[in-house]
From TrEMBL:
PANTHER family the UniProt entry points to: PROTEIN-EXPORT PROTEIN SECB (PTHR36918:SF1), PTHR36918
Assembly information from the UniProt record: Homotetramer, a dimer of dimers. One homotetramer interacts with 1 SecA dimer.
One Pfam family named in its UniProt record: SecB
Identification of the protein by name: Protein-export protein SecB
Chief location bin: cytoplasm
Biological process according to GO: protein folding; protein tetramerization; protein transport
Protein purpose: One of the proteins required for the normal export of preproteins out of the cell cytoplasm. It is a molecular chaperone that binds to a subset of precursor proteins, maintaining them in a translocation-competent state. It also specifically binds to its receptor SecA.
Family: Belongs to the SecB family.
The encoding gene: secB
Length: 157
């Protein structure tokens, strides 16, 4: 019996990660030049903006929100603006501060991005525009870039 109790205690000390829920927190679509934009030759210029934020929900639960904003211009006119806030609730415990920061800043957004990408694509198609197939994003590289920027800012201060 003691071996089982020790095994359970050792399991509790191990790092844990579990996805609890993925959901759309906010969704927006605007086509300010409709219907005129549909009568023009389609030469889109796409601008993409990514942002993440985290919130500690207590008891080792964390909310991570990935915001993906897309602005598409056709010539000088804005054809459409689409934005999704794709969120997830994650159970994360037993990680040191650096690992926790990386998990919340890169690993979780990596899990959320395919959902955000599919939601945006569906939204844009429902607006009667061509499918928007966003390329994969390397959140590990973005996270490392942001860490480098923060460290450089601290060194200058």
């Amino acid at each position: 019996m003691t071996e089982q109790a020790n095994g359970a205690a050792a399991q509790n000390d191990q790092p844990q990660f579990a996805l609890q829920r993925i959901y759309v927190r906010d969704l927006s679509f605007e086509a300010p030049k409709s219907p005129e934009v549909f009568r023009q030759e389609w030469k889109p210029a796409i601008s993409l903006d990514l942002n993440t934020r985290q919130k500690d929900l207590g008891n080792d639960f964390h909310e991570v929100v990935l915001t993906v904003s897309v602005t598409v211009k056709n010539g000088e006119d804005t054809a459409f603006i689409a934005e999704v806030q794709q969120a997830g609730i994650f159970l994360i415990k037993g990680l040191d501060a650096a690992s926790m920061s990386h998990t919340l800043g890169a690993f979780c957004p990596n899990l959320l991005f395919p959902y955000a990408r599919e939601t945006l694509d569906s939204l844009v198609v429902r607006g009667s525009f061509p499918a928007l197939m966003l390329s994969p994003v390397n959140f590990d590289a973005l996270y490392a870039q942001e860490l480098g920027r923060l460290q450089a800012a601290e060194a200058q201060a």
